[in-house]
Amino acid sequence: MNKGMEKAKILIESLPYIKEFYNETVVIKYGGHAMVDEELKKSFALDIILMKYIGINPIIVHGGGPQINQFLGKMNIQSDYIHGMRVTTGETMDVVEMVLVGKVNKEIVSLINFHGGKAVGLSGRDGDLIKARKMKIMKSLAENAPPELIDLGRVGEVTDVNAEVLDSLDTRDFIPVIAPVGVGEDGHAYNINADLVAGAIAAQMQAAKLILLTDVQGVLDETKKLISSMTISEADRLIASGVIAGGMIPKIKCCQDVVQAGVGKAHIIDGRVEHAVLLEMFTDQGVGTEVVA
Fold first, then answer.
1. What pLDDT is recorded for position 223?
2. DSSP 244
3. Residue 18 falls within a domain, yes or no?
4. How far is CA 180 from each of CA 121, 162, 280, rounded to the nearest angstrom?
5. Which residues of 146-159 are buried (b: 16+ CB within 10 A; e: fewer)?
6. Which CATH number is 38's domain given?
7. Is residue 221 part of a domain?
């Protein structure tokens, strides 16, 4: 009886959130440990299916860096990084596309469908879903010297998202699962950071939420305590003071950009927690850090 009462309380607590996000779009960047651990993979799939059943429209954008590294290693192809970006030659791009689109994407689609959902796998090439251009990075190579353009090869940034493709899937109750590969004006494929793709899609779709799954709790303050919520300006101050540093900075910048573009909230959550997506969306406390306007 006590367990039943506890479940009833959880359902009642989630009711206002279900009502708030009914018929809204939520974009989720799926990556990290949640893509590797079998129990976490199952709980993620069930979270997405439940969201769809109660009238929320989830869109998944996935990463796949470790899987790409594994295949490149087997093929004896060296992979270098500059500013956290993989230098992507034509040969490397072939492997990236093969792994992301042909392997990782299909595994996620199969997982959701196996547990009762209706998922469809896409890459940015499908229907010109994600249009891209070559990313340009300037780097100072020596003191008092002008910065030079660094060639990252086929690394891209999003220039446009074709919302019609996603709208057509939504009207048929399909869950889009998107590999972060874009297409340039030259017709070539471009490797794009999955956070950037998720952010661009969230902005284009005017999503209620962008959720980034990571392998950390969220953003921690000076005392290593989780910050559950912050504004854009508060995030700027924490970056300036060094509290937010390293790999968390681009994730926070992504969250700031999408909120400024009209997305309701952006969340950085701990994907190592079972049912992390549901806990963040439908409970008062959540499991990570949200960025609000």
1. 87
2. S
3. no
4. 11, 14, 24
5. eeeebebbbbbbbe
6. 3.40.1160.10
7. no
